[in-house]
Design brief:
The complex is a heterodimer of chains A (122) and B (279). Chain A is α/β, with parallel strands linked by helices. Chain A is 42% helix and 20% strand. Chain B has a seven-stranded mixed beta sheet. A three-stranded antiparallel beta sheet of chain B has the order 3-5-4. Classes of the chains: A alpha/beta (122), B alpha/beta (279).
């Protein structure tokens, strides 16, 4: 993985995510809502992983997920939802819309490394 | 903790669980046993030791359970599961076409992620075997409270995210208070019971595959050899033993050959092995 885009309206979550992702030697781009994420994705051009919050202002994570999937399939872009919405219905909705994985907040570094970066952990 | 208390506790743990602490593990004993002492309304280690010296079976069991390690996750160290799917099970299925029976033992199952990972793998990749064969996964652990947890099939949100792909989670688990519970069709493949590996396990019957991962590392060489001898005795001659990545039989048992078709630590009983099964 070359570059991960962290999409979350919480600066704290983005900061924690950045530390984990950069700690694994992967570059980071940030966006604070879904609309912003689409712009950053096209501008950066080399984003191949996304950690995507669900509840955000302007455009939510599910709408962003659907928009990203229209331009980049799973072979090009790994999308991991990362949200406090932790019930069966939300997870199923995200998987149907094309999410590769799903992280239920609160997360640990190990879970992000495994589900987003596909790195085995000890 | 003074040296005498340390020696007493490490001897007790060795006798009851085979766990070999070695010297200078005071911090480990203290970190596990001070909270335990408090839960028994004891002041600290000296009072705990005094009570154990007067012989208290309940407290002795609690100390043993507190000292055992329960680190695990779903599909931990993925390679043995890939090899179970691609090599071990196809070999066994080809050989068991007449008996249509498959028995797998997870000998230190802790909180149950390993046996349930195997159950998921069987459901996903060998549905016709699950449907038509007699399939049993036996999960045992030294600690009764671990066995009870396994039986409940319930996992916290964090536990269910470690090692388990989300698609398998939504397929095989249902939401419950405090987390996620393994669905019944998976749970009925797995049975649970308490088993101390230091004691005889002849009564468990014979198995096609024994998982004994990341447990031998805690024993001294003599105990490892004895356990491997017993495992050999409860494996079918053409069965498989799966050890942890850092474990081996070399220098401990002459009863097994490395199974070279697998990269992970997989062994089979030697054709002429005279395995010991203690009673």
């Amino acid at each position: 993985m070359k570059k991960v885009m962290l999409v979350d309206d919480s600066r704290t979550v983005r900061l924690i995510g950045r530390q984990i992702v950069e700690g694994a030697g992967v570059a980071v781009a940030e966006a604070e809502n879904g609309e912003d994420a689409l712009e950053v994705f096209h501008r950066e051009g080399d984003v191949d992983g996304v950690l995507l919050d669900w509840n955000m202002p302007v455009m939510d994570g599910l709408s962003c997920l659907k928009a990203l999937r229209r331009v980049a399939d799973a072979s090009r872009l790994r999308i991991v939802m990362c949200t406090t919405e932790n019930d069966f219905e939300h997870i199923s909705q995200a998987l149907e819309a094309g999410a590769d994985e799903y992280v239920m907040k609160p997360f640990t570094e190990e879970i992000i490394r495994e589900k987003l970066l596909s790195l085995a952990t000890a | 903790m003074n040296q005498e208390e340390y020696d007493f506790l490490s001897r007790l743990v060795m006798r009851t669980s085979g766990l070999h602490l070695g010297p200078n593990k005071q911090y480990l004993l203290e970190s596990r046993l001070i909270p335990l002492a408090q839960s028994f309304d004891l002041e600290g280690i000296p009072e705990l030791v005094a009570r154990l010296r007067r012989s208290d079976a309940l407290l002795e069991t609690a100390v043993t359970e507190a000292m055992t390690t329960n680190e695990t996750s779903f599909f931990r160290d993925i390679t043995p599961f890939d090899e179970l799917r691609d090599t071990i099970l196809p070999t066994l299925i080809a050989d068991r076409g007449t008996s249509k029976s498959l028995r797998i033992w997870c000998s230190a199952s802790s909180t149950g992620q390993e046996p349930f990972s195997i159950a998921i793998l069987l459901h996903e990749h060998f549905p016709e075997i699950v449907q038509n064969w007699r399939v049993e996964i036996l999960a045992t652990d030294i600690a009764e409270k671990m066995v009870s947890r396994c039986r409940s099939g319930e996992y916290s949100q964090l536990e269910v995210q470690r090692g388990l792909p989300i698609r398998l989670m939504v397929k095989h688990f249902e939401q419950c208070d405090g987390g996620w519970r393994v669905k019944d069709d998976l749970r009925k493949l797995v049975s649970f019971r308490r088993q101390n590996l230091l004691e005889s396990f002849r009564h468990l019957g014979r198995f096609d595959v024994v998982f004994c991962r990341n447990v031998l590392i805690y024993f001294d060489a003599e105990t490892k050899g004895r356990i491997l001898g017993q495992i050999c005795g409860c494996l079918h001659q053409d069965g498989f033993l799966v050890l942890g990545a850092a474990e081996t039989v070399i220098g401990l048992s002459e009863s097994f050959d490395r199974f070279r078709d697998c990269k992970s630590a997989v062994y089979r009983p030697k054709a002429d092995s005279a395995c010991t099964v203690s009673r």
